[in-house]
Amino acid sequence: MLMSHAAILVLQGLSGALVGVVLFYLLGSLLLREWVRIDAYQLSLSMAVAFLVAIVCEVSLGKLYYLVMGDHLWQYRVWPIHDGYTSVLNFIIWPVYGYYLYFFHYVLQQKSVEIRPHWLKGLVSGFDGPLLEILANGFFLLFYGTFYFYYLPDDMRHFTSIQVIPLYMVMGVILTLLLEPLLKKPPRWHYPALFYLAGVGFVLAG
Q: Which of 15, 41, 51, 108 is geometrically suited to a Cys-Cys bond with 199, CB 3.0 to 4.6 A?
């Protein structure tokens, strides 16, 4: 029995997410020269909050860019929704960005590197976000022959764009301001569940 097109796309998204999960875990462990011990709750919370914030921000900020500049900055090529500003597969892909942030902050903590005020951590997204986009598009082009998302400006060969840096910074600051207080609260598993379900609801609304 042949798989449906939707099932094939989900498997493509899962394959990309799996590569990211393995890569970021190995990179974090390599930087610390020991296997990272994961806090399941904090990791889940980071992934769920990042998913909701990122998917809402990319649609909202993408539309704001269009209003100001009169053209799209990016368009999703794989299972697009919300007028092409995001993809159904981002219920799989965006949580991996939260996974990455968990390891990034964990390494900083273990190395006794402290950034104050805490919201400044969010500005880092303006630099790591575009780099991760290049990896994501490179993966989809290499294995599936298509851009996952396509940037209309060609300053970075359509993999990403310099113009997206300030948008990532805005998203990163919002994410940091929301996530930091939640991480300090006593663990309550309904937090990651609610954030993830809210993100899924936003996807279904597209």
A: 51
